[in-house]
## 1
Amino acid sequence: MKSITEYLDSKISYENSTPERRDIGSTYDRRDYDDAKSKMDKRQDDFGGKKSITDPFGNKLHDNPDAAKNKYGEQNLTKHKPNVDHVVPLKKVHEMADFLGVPPEKAKEIANDKSNLWTINEHDNKSKGAKSNFEMAYSEVKDGNYSKAATWAEQGVKSTASVGGKLAGAAIENKVEQARKEIGI
């Protein structure tokens, strides 16, 4: 049985073999994939009219940044300010979609699906950057934060399965459509 670090190492190794690193495909531009409306809708769904919620890491997030600043101070604000994060980073979605031949507009729709968005605190989202949840989990394990590592990994597994499945389905639909055009159906 693999240890958690061996498992996460294998996930990171796989992710680092993505199409871009195999010289396949088009140029990535975050602006082609990011969708502010989807993130705003996710945030509104999560808050549901409430003034505060708890993120998956146990941090209380405030819908109003001034309220968070007044309660926790400027230096702790980012741990209580909500950010909607793409669990599978947009660049990874681009690479997978490009490899599978999924049109960019369909890839953008999948990247911004609610199954790939979660509301976390700004501090953790900024720390993550374009890294995957598996890379974040690995970092947390190395720091001895096993509970936080499990949260990163669990959401990573769920979203990666969803995004991967939807991209594969879109690739199949695309190939079927191409075949229909070729045979005149």
## 2
Amino acid sequence: MEKIVDFATITVLCGVDSSYVRGSISDENGRFKIENLPQGTYLLDITHLLYKRRYIPVKIQEDTELKSVIMEENVLELDGVTVTANIIQYKADRYIVSLQNHPITKGNNTSQVLALMPGVTNEENMLKINGQDVTQIYVNGRKLRDRNELNAIQADNIDKVEIIPMSGAEENASSMGGVIYIKLKKIDDGGYYGSASGNFSTLVEEGHMGDNLNASFNYRYGKLSIYNYTYYGHFRNFNKYDISTHYKEKDTFIDMKTDGKGWSTSFSDRLSLTYELNDKHSIGGNFRVGVKDGSPVNNTQSMIKNGREEQIDLSGSVITEKLRIREYRQLSIMTGE
């Protein structure tokens, strides 16, 4: 028996380079409409929490109407739990997705799972909702300052996610855009959980380029909840490029070569304390320390040649930058439900 697939994310990609063009979400009848799309060839990327991803090539002409798209159920089991379609709720200004015991959270971090939410896409590590930038992300009421924190939070610790395509009066008017609220599962008294992840990057010719490590930890003692996030990064300054310019009026060529070297190191730690006043209200504070050191060096050489490719002049410069940033601050005092 065929089922209507509502809240599916439809992303229109360019048929030439697969770059993002436009997006939409299917309604309660499984229908979607994308207007003002120029004629041409595109690729539809259709995703849903309960179905396998589908790519459909389409050729758009005037008022093109597509045939019904058949989605294949993503048959996943998790300890005998049955996943149903009512995990997604729609309200006037937002979507609410319940992820308690959902199979997609198994083995994934929060950043990976957010890209599967209704209307959400991940474009070059930038989250967007219906093509608009996600300007703010909150975790248990804490506004994230570092998006790397999402990689350190395992998705199976998420209770629910609220997705607001456009922020309203409750948000800062200067940062209009998509907002995501993430609520983690409540820990029992004495309970804790955490996770850690890291990356190591290297290039065949250049060698070691950088590495990073991030970790998060949650602990509950009585009515007090403690959350800590730590990040360490060590990256190589790799700024290598050549620029050639031809000045026709003087028949002169200028070749400029830049070679950047050096390393930079950064460390940050965020501590969040929340005390539960009653079942509906709590109070808490955030504290952050950040350190960044580095000494990147940019070596630039410029060669001037005439129209016969003969060298006229040669000059160079070496710019050394000393980075030393220290940040210690209390971010906020939080109250609310």
## 3
Amino acid sequence: WRSKKMARKDENLSPEEEQLRQLKADQKAFKKEQKTQRNLNDTLIDMPKAEERIDKWLWCMRVFKTRTIATDACKKGRVTINGVSLKPSRMIKPGDVVDVKKPPVTYTFRVLQIPPNRLGAKLVPEYLENLTSPSQYELLEMTKISGFVDRQKGLGRPTKRDSRELSRFKEESYADSFFLDWEDDDEDDD
């Protein structure tokens, strides 16, 4: 019943009203096409890339906390592919094996895919394969442990115990020198 009523309305439209109705229909179709195009663009953005700058890739993969730190590491020669130091602008592609020196450890990664943007930590294994040898991780663990045990005297910030001993020593030596000088002065007066 409704479609018959609408059909009767369409028959009774003037040419201006018909143009207006057609214009509104065209605008609606245009908006729908734009929405479809936006969805297509969003899909294209999320697709993996073929190549990426090494500094951006290291940042995206959370090897370095900031892109600036990743760039500095490249400039200092701490990032290599096949033993060759890289500039931060070097493009990498899937299949490349990247070595990253973060003293005392050298990490090794294989590029599986290039991500569209920075990833959450849980998604990183989908885009890179960690080839770092277990001996490097043992070296890192030993460094962490020895950092607390083998601190050489005089290096680094004093511990609380060191500070107390130093303050006691200063107080005692000041008091001793004060009294010694006082006694010397009394003897001179006699």
## 4
Amino acid sequence: MIIIIFMSIPNIIVVAGSSGAGKTTWVCQQMREIAAVDKIIYFSPGTGTVPIDQTRIATEFPGIQVFSDGQEVEFFNQIPKAEAVYIELGFYLQLEAIAQILDNLTYRAIAVLPLDFKDSEYHSWANEIVRGAPAQTSTAETLWRAASNGQVIDENSLEEFWYEITHGAYGIVTRAKGIFDVNDGRSLYCDFVAGVPQTDFLELDLPRYLEGRPQRFSGLEVVGENLDEATLKQTLSDCCLSDATILQYQQQCLILHGLGPTGDAPELIAKYEGDTVKMLWECVSRKTVQWLRSLDFGFFELDCLLIHGSTVGVGEELTPETPPIQMLDRLSRMQANNLFCGRSGLTFQYQMQTGSITTELTTLDNQMFPQIVTVSPRQVIGVGNVGRTAGQATYTFYNPGTNQVEFKTVYYGNSKGFQSKHKSIKSKSRIFHS
């Protein structure tokens, strides 16, 4: 439902309608015709901790006053001060709920409904019927919501998850909408209505979040029949990135945009010299940079971490010559027993055997007691590369059940096919450090 009040006259308009018919779209159309958006009030009760429509409207109309559940008293007190007040009620609320919100204030009722929606409670209630989208509806529909504040989702995983939602993987979905923070810092609005042509994800006009986990709303709402809510919840959780992976993505994005601590690419210049780096910059189009930003730079699954560089940064190369104490530090930062890295382009298996680390600290005043840290078996695995050496590509096979690693080389020149390769480097069983 929507309510509009002009000046001190309580000319209130309440809008209701079926799921996906276009209630929020109608509200936005009315708001665009009002010059003083700072005098607009919008309220949509019943959304709980998943205020998707409120967030979208607040983003499109930055000066608007938006109210959610728990702010009913403040909203009611602001009505006389506004030039236009919009209240939208979802299909899941009873039409009688508006009386409790408005405390017997008069209003004009408008229903947004599909053309084939006939003889409903909305028709007898509304003063005006607005033709809405041809959304499919059912009396057996259920509503499922989940807030995901602070979570970041890989955009490719989001596209797959959204495809599954809209193609029956979790039940017969007639309506779905959500706001998600993705790996390059953007906030995306996703919208689906059964029976209506699908639209691309919409980037909300919000600052990119590139420092840790986003401190803003994100969440999902799904309407349909026979929804597999447990699987929906689990799949959404599986799409969310770990702290280590978020850090990797954000570092890459900052570097690509020249905003990170290594924005001038000193390591790249030192290795390939300035002319080569300049040529690379001129040859890589903006479109290609956008594609690079969508790639996956890290995964944490079970006790395995796969990243491009190391847990310190995207530019660090771990090799068979890296000192054991440095390897152990990189492993212990993320509590990973198996660290897979590809920056060096080498295939290697660097094993840290069971042992201990003894640390001591001596100051000018005294010597502190030594601390002993037990080291469990861990390993760093170089995953190889494709394309660095002409005519061959190296691959790594890992079996999490047996913890076995095997390297394969594919030759695509004169000698073609697979060839196995094993290379392991084991550290000493006991490491001392002071």
